[in-house]
């Protein structure tokens, strides 16, 4: 496939002064790395004189010293352990502030004043708030939940207390069933009760004997000369075997 092209491309001749060839030579010079660095290589081959106190040299040294971590910490390392103007750590404002902050952050020291003063509080045992708290604790306690409340801390003749006692008595199972205690063990006859009377009335209504009356039990006098009676007698004589 490429044999003809490979054979013909070696036989093509283009003049070297054509615009295309000149432009290609210029492009080759522009993209040539060797030609690009030619001036720099010639300058490096020549000797040059740069003094140590030149501005670029000083600037480079200062930048290196600033960027160096050792130079950055050199002043701090030299000042370690040297305090000027403070004879002790308590006189140093920074150390005093740090110690104060540490004391405030310490939980034991933070609660020391509370623990020292909590045992010195004096409250009267008969104060209303204390009595109310004790009563509330008794009410919410599981141990005393089902015990009768017999200790009252308010006047017994108050309306709310009387109402509460009555509501408590109504809700109590013992008081609710106390009216049935006197009936326990007493005999009772059902005669005269509503159910018994109702059953008797229903029995009378359903009684066949009371509902219908037999003809033989009815007392009456028949007339013998009525047409139907005379006709019945004639029929009886005609049907008689005698």
Automatic annotation (TrEMBL):
GO cellular component: Z disc
Identification of the protein by name: NEBU protein
Domain of life: Eukaryota
Coiled coil feature spans: none
A molecular function GO annotation: actin filament binding
SMART domains reported for this sequence: NEBU
Any one of the GO BP annotations: cardiac muscle thin filament assembly
InterPro entries per record: NEBU/NEBL, Nebulin-like, Nebulin_repeat
Organism: Himantopus himantopus (Black-winged stilt)
Keywords, ordered alphabetically: Actin-binding, Repeat
């Amino acid at each position: 496939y490429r044999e003809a092209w490979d054979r013909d491309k070696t036989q093509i001749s283009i003049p070297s002064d054509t615009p295309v060839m000149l432009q290609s030579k210029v492009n080759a010079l522009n993209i040539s790395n060797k030609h690009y660095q030619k001036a720099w290589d010639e300058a490096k081959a020549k000797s040059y004189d740069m003094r140590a106190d030149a501005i670029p040299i000083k600037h480079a040294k200062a930048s290196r010293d600033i960027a160096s971590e050792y130079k950055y910490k050199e002043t701090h390392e030299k000042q370690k352990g040297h305090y000027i103007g403070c004879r002790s750590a308590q006189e140093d404002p920074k150390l005093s502030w740090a110690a104060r902050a540490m004391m405030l952050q310490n939980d034991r020291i933070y609660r020391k004043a509370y623990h020292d003063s909590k045992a010195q509080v004096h409250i009267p045992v008969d104060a209303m708030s204390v009595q109310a708290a004790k009563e509330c604790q008794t009410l919410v306690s599981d141990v005393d939940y089902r015990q009768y409340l017999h200790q009252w801390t308010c006047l017994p003749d108050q309306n709310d207390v009387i109402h509460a006692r009555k509501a408590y008595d109504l809700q109590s199972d013992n008081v609710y069933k106390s009216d049935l205690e006197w009936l326990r063990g007493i005999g009772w006859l059902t005669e005269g009760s509503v159910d018994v009377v109702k059953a008797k009335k229903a029995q009378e209504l359903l009684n066949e004997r009371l509902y219908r009356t037999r003809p033989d039990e009815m007392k009456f006098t028949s007339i013998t000369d009525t047409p139907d009676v005379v006709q019945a007698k004639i029929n009886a004589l005609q049907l008689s075997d005698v």
